[in-house]
């Protein structure tokens, strides 16, 4: 079961509330204006997402921040960047001068904090608009090939809800993906919740 165009448009508006909150929080952390685009929300297979992350023949290694959320919907949220861009983001956010080739413990902690802000801001925005409650686990950072991160559980044909978000900090441009891993039951619950939201607007 997938989401139709109207439901995806509604989710884009809902997710954008949380993205706006995340931009404000990240701007305070960075001490600079962090601009986040309106997310492009799509449902696609894990394999399709893997192809997007590694398009143009880029390195297939990614840096991911994972966090589980439970409630009416049970999902694992994963924030993903190509490794080089994730390190640039950390450097811009915390003024770190560690070489880009290294990702030490301090950088992982900084990335976990950035991911925690983004994931919780977006989920909180969704919860507020849809009047839901979620419990979140602690985030953790994972570094490795895209297939290892995405295909660790389930099948490459499994559907995921993907938010493509572009970051702009001064002259730095970074593209990240926030992905919600949903089982069939959670997709059905999400679909029903969005339908109720759309009915409430009429």
Written account of the structure:
The protein has 202 residues and is α+β, with helices and mostly antiparallel strands. Helix content is 47%, strand content 29%. Strands 1, 2, 3, 4, 5, 6, 7 and 8 form an eight-stranded antiparallel sheet that branches. The longest helix is centred in the N-terminal third of the chain and has 26 residues, at 5-30. It is globular, with a radius of gyration of 16 Å.
Mean pLDDT: 82
Distance between the termini: 25 Å
Q: Can you count the beta strands? A: 8
CATH homologous superfamily grouping: CheC-like
Structural class by secondary-structure content = alpha+beta
Q: Quick one: CATH class?
A: Alpha Beta
What is the CATH topology assignment? Chemotaxis protein chec
The count of helical stretches stands at 6
H/E topology pattern: HEEHEEHHEEHEEH
Label this structure with key terms.
202 residues; alpha+beta; Chemotaxis protein chec; 8-stranded antiparallel beta sheet; 6 helices; globular
